[in-house]
């Protein structure tokens, strides 16, 4: 399973790679911005995208919009990763068309399981 | 005794005696003069009788002389010539017939033989024939013999006797007086006698008539006291008529008789009456003719019997008595008037004197007992007299100690006295001068002194009198008051909070500088203005109504209001009202804090907390992730020591994340921005989930968790209730000793289910039972370090429970330790037993108001329209009832005892099933637009109490019912 992590924080990307790859056994791609992520999604066609909400330039929702707007990426499941844990925020993000929402900080040992659960692969 | 009666007696008795004595004296005088008058009248009567008698006898004597001078007498005597005698007899007849008072007219010879005789009886005179003439009897012969002895011309008068015939007294008695005189021829010829038997009856009758002028009877007595004329005929002639020999004057009036028998005349008075008498010799009465009567003596007596004397004397007794009576009467009346008048005068005098005495006593009392010190002193300051208060004022124990002192030593500043004296000498008095006295013990006292100057007759100052009123306390109190006022003023003017005072009509009376600044006015601009200037009141709302509502809302508690500054800016402020009574009426004052800055700060804080929390999350995510990977062995096994350290770091980073989540939760809960999903929820799964969550922690702590769940359905956000329960149970575990038990149970109560978490810990001191539910508090500061946590858990629990319309608290458990509890309303209150017409009802209206009377009225009104009703009087009741009953319309008052109607709206809005409930806000308040925007559920209408039109309430409720629940959603 191939998963793309889009996050502007290097540390988060690195931990995510470890948590999803080393712990979860996934093939992990990562991108440091929305634009880069879209390019990688187009190029690599991952099975799922873990998308940070707060990013400079194109933020998570924007990036999602771009992904959904591109037929090559429109069908890729997108899971938001947000630091705002309020129910309202979760609702808002779901309403944007995300397939799931995970909150920061996350437990690296169970992150992959959470992603699989959202994708219905658990 | 009645004083007036006493006075009358005292004065009246002597006067009465005097008047009576006077009356008696007058009577005595009158009686004496009456007696004299009587006697003189008796004497006069006697004189008349005597005169009459004398005249009668004189005429008889002259008749005798006339008869004696008849020419035929001598021839008749000398010759045997019958013719001469017959002629003489005719002469006698004519005489007798004409005189009619002579019973016999006779010519007698010297030897006593009758020669001629004419009888007169019954009005007729008759000549006695020669053959019937007779010799006189023995007595007659004696009388005639004596008459013959007298020289011619001399008349002999016989005693007065009744005529006797044949030795018997004639009936009726004929008193006769016989007069005889001798006749002779010129040459010593034959002598004879002429005799007249004079019928005395008329004489005696005349005697009686003479006495008619006087009282009593006129009596004629003979020598021996026999009545010739008596008081009555049957006592007369006792000498001659047999059986009457005792009828004598001497027998009837022995005392008088003694005098009368002896005396010639006079008057006397005996017990029988008043007597006046005269001794009369009939012979001496015969006028010019010399008479002899052979010693015959009469007594003429005028007798007035004692009874008549007394009657006559007391003729005026009645008059005198009446006069005395009248005098007494007038005197009595006069006395009465005088007595009453005098009593009045005395009463008035007595009162006046009493008043005077009382006034003096009062003055004395005033002088002695008065709190006012009074003294008299010479001008140069020697104390002459003073009262107790004066002594007390200076602390003297005895009067002697004070008297004679120099008053100059009594003033703290001698110049005070000098000033007073100076004023006295120039103006005569000094009034209400405040001076400071020096007491005996050296302490000082403020008094108010007034003095007056008294001068001698020659005008030189004699002495001065002064009064001292202790005003020390008053003055010190006034000073204290002034200080207090200054303090109050300083506080009011320098305090940071605003203070505004209004009267009952919301007219501003006082504004402190802080309030001036707050509203942007100068204080003077606001005074006299209506409060409306500062706190917008809807036009048309009565200020009094507004004041009452404001008082109801904010009196004694802190509430939030909106004010308007001078520049028109509207700003929030916090207001606490208090009221107090002044002489000018009730005043309401408000303590005001401008909330503008606090609101800004709150907002900043919230934003800060929110953003810092989010900012923290990013690095925390890395740390948590890194540590998690290390601890989870994702990067290969760690040496045991390193693994321990990493585990510790991970544990603490998890706690840190939890803390940040707590802070955010609390911020959102208290800001009302945490949405909850209220649903009917069973309690047992909640308890189970909470215990599962805490189980591992309890196991680690060696604490046993026990559950006594009772099934109940509550209206709750299940996740949040689990959160609350987890928090409480975790706390309980944390504070329980190892081996202890924490028990969780659910106890259904009235309207709510109570969750209880009981531990065996050391309990919560009563003083902290409320404080621990505040933010950042734990029972002891050291707990924080020992047990960890920033103390936000209970504050979050409280916020969550209150959003459920419930309550939370802690109490001692029945054993040791404490029981934390919270109550959550039941999901389905038993649907109220609505009456039979509920089936045909148009719907159910939930009426929320704290005025039960109004509720009854509204229920009646709606019953007319077949609207079923249920009432709630508090916000909590309203929320519970709304969830339980799912009414078709909500009628909501805003001012409720436990909160505001808007809380009800907020609570219902969080419930999906109630969000679209039709709402009628029915309140006395005037709602500003902002209020209206907040107070919205489904179709919402607003109606102001007491300003509605007729039946507007009913029609609006019916209109809202027509929408049906969620009609506009």
What would a concise description of this structure say?
The complex is a heterodimer of chains A (122) and B (969). Chain A is of the alpha/beta class and 122 residues long.
The radius of gyration over CA of chain B amounts to 77 Å
Helical fraction of chain A: 40-55%
Overall mean pLDDT of chain A: 90
Q: Give the strand order of the largest sheet of chain A, numbering strands 1, 2, ... along the chain.
A: 2-1-3-4-5
Number of helices of chain B: 27
Distance between the termini of chain A: 13 Å
Biggest protein-protein interface? Answer: A-B, 22 and 22 residues
In the predicted model, the low-confidence regions of chain A spanning at least 5 consecutive residues are: none
Number of domains of chain B: 7
Q: Given the helix and strand composition of chain B, which structural class is it? A: alpha+beta
The total beta strand count of chain A reads 5
Main sheet of chain B, how many strands, which sense, barrel? Answer: 8 strands, mixed
Largest beta sheet of chain A, briefly? 5 strands, parallel
Structural shape of chain A: globular
Q: Rg of chain A to the nearest angstrom?
A: 13 Å
In round numbers, the mean pLDDT of chain B is: 81
What structural class do you assign from the helix and strand content of chain A? alpha/beta
H/E topology pattern of chain A: EHEHEHEHEH
């Amino acid at each position: 399973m191939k998963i793309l992590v889009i996050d502007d924080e290097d540390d988060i990307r690195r931990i995510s790679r470890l948590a999803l790859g080393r712990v979860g056994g996934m093939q992990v791609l990562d991108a440091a911005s929305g634009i880069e992520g879209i390019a990688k999604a187009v190029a690599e066609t991952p099975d799922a995208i873990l998308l940070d909400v707060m990013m400079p330039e194109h933020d998570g929702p924007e990036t999602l919009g771009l992904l959904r707007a591109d037929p090559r990426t429109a069908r890729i499941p997108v899971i938001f990763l947000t630091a705002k844990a309020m129910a309202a925020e979760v609702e808002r993000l779901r309403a944007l068309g995300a397939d799931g929402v995970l909150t920061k900080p996350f437990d690296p040992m169970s992150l992959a399981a959470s992603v699989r659960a959202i994708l219905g692969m658990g | 005794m009645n004083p007036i009666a006493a006075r009358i007696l005292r004065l009246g008795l002597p006067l009465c005696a005097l008047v009576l004595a006077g009356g008696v004296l007058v009577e005595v005088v009158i009686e004496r003069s009456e007696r004299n008058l009587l006697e003189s009248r008796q004497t006069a009567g006697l004189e008349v009788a005597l005169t009459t008698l004398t005249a009668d006898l004189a005429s008889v004597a002259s008749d005798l002389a006339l008869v004696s001078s008849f020419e035929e007498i001598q021839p008749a005597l000398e010759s045997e010539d019958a013719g001469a005698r017959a002629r003489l007899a005719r002469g006698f007849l004519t005489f007798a017939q004409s005189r009619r008072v002579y019973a016999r007219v006779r010519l007698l010879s010297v030897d006593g033989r009758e020669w001629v005789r004419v009888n007169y009886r019954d009005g007729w005179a008759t000549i006695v024939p020669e053959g019937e003439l007779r010799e006189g009897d023995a007595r007659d012969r004696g009388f005639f013999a004596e008459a013959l002895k007298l020289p011619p011309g001399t008349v002999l008068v016989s005693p007065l006797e009744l005529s006797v015939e044949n030795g018997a007294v004639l009936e009726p008695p004929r008193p006769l007086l016989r007069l005889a005189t001798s006749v002779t021829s010129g040459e010593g010829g034959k002598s004879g006698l002429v005799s007249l038997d004079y019928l005395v009856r008329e004489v005696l009758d005349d005697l009686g008539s003479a006495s008619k002028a006087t009282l009593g009877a006129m009596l004629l007595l003979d020598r021996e006291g026999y009545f010739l004329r008596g008081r009555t005929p049957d006592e007369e002639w006792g000498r001659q008529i047999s059986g009457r020999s005792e009828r004598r004057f001497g027998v009837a009036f022995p005392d008088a008789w003694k005098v009368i028998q002896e005396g010639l005349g006079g008057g006397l008075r005996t017990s029988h009456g008043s007597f006046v008498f005269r001794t009369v010799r009939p012979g001496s009465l015969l006028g010019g003719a010399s008479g002899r009567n052979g010693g015959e003596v009469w007594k003429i007596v005028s007798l007035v019997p004692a009874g008549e004397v007394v009657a006559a004397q007391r003729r005026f007794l009645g008059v005198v008595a009446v006069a005395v009576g009248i005098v007494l009467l007038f005197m009595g009346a006069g006395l009465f008037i005088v007595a009453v008048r005098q009593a009045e005068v005395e009463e008035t005098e007595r009162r006046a004197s009493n008043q005077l005495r009382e006034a003096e006593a009062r003055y004395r009392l005033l002088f002695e007992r008065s709190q006012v010190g009074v003294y008299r002193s010479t001008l140069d300051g020697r104390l002459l007299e003073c009262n107790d208060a004066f002594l007390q004022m200076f602390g003297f124990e005895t009067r002697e100690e004070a008297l004679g002192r120099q008053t100059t030593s009594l003033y703290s500043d001698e110049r005070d006295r000098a000033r007073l004296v100076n004023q006295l000498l120039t103006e005569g008095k000094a009034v209400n001068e405040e001076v400071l006295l020096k007491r005996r013990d050296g302490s000082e006292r403020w008094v108010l002194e007034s003095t007056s100057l008294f001068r001698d007759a020659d005008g030189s100052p004699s002495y001065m009198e002064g009064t001292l009123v202790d005003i020390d306390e008053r003055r010190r109190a006034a000073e204290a008051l002034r200080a207090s006022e200054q303090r109050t003023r300083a506080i009011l003017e320098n305090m940071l909070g605003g203070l505004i005072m209004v009267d009952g009509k919301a007219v501003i009376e006082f504004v402190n500088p802080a309030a001036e600044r707050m509203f942007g006015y100068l204080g003077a601009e606001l005074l006299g203005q209506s409060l409306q200037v500062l706190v917008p009141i809807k036009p048309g709302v009565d200020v009094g109504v507004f004041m009452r509502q404001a008082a109801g809302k904010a009196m004694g508690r802190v509430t939030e209001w909106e004010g308007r500054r001078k520049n028109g800016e509207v700003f929030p402020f916090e207001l606490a009202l208090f009221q107090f009574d002044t002489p000018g009426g009730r005043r309401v004052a408000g303590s005001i804090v401008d909330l503008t800055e606090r609101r800004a700060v709150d907002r900043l804080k919230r934003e800060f907390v929110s953003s810092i929390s989010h900012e923290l999350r990013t690095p925390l995510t890395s740390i948590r992730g890194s540590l998690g990977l290390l601890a989870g062995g994702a990067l290969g096994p760690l040496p045991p020591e390193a693994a321990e350290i990493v585990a510790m770091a991970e544990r603490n980073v998890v706690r840190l994340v939890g803390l940040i989540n707590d802070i955010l939760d609390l911020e959102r809960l208290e800001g009302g921005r945490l949405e909850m999903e209220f649903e009917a929820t069973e309690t047992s799964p909640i308890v189970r989930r909470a215990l599962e969550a805490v189980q591992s922690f309890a196991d680690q702590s060696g604490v046993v968790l026990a559950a006594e769940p009772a099934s109940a359905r509550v209206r709750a956000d299940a996740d949040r209730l689990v959160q609350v329960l987890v928090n409480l149970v975790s706390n309980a575990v944390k504070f329980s000793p190892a081996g202890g038990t924490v028990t969780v149970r659910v106890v259904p109560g009235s309207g709510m289910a109570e969750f209880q978490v009981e531990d065996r810990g050391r309990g919560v001191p009563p003083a902290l039972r409320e404080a621990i539910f505040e933010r950042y508090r734990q029972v002891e500061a050291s707990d924080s370090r020992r047990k960890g946590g920033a103390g936000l858990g209970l504050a979050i629990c409280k916020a969550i429970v209150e959003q459920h319309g419930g309550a939370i608290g802690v109490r001692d458990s029945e054993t040791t330790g404490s029981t934390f509890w919270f109550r959550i309303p039941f999901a389905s209150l038993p649907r109220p037993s609505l009456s039979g017409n509920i089936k045909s009802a148009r719907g159910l209206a939930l009426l929320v108001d704290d005025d039960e009377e109004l509720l009854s009225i509204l229920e009646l009104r709606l019953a007319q329209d077949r609207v079923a009703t249920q009432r709630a009087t508090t916000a909590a009741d309203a929320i519970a009832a709304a969830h339980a009953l799912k009414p078709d319309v909500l009628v909501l008052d805003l001012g409720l005892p436990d909160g505001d109607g808007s809380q009800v709206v907020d609570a219902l809005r969080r419930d999906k099933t109630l969000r679209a409930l039709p709402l009628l806000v029915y309140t006395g308040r005037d709602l500003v637009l902002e209020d209206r925007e907040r107070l919205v559920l489904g179709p919402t209408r607003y109606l102001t109490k007491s300003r509605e039109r007729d039946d507007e309430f009913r029609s609006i409720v019916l209109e809202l019912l027509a929408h049906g629940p969620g009609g506009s959603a």
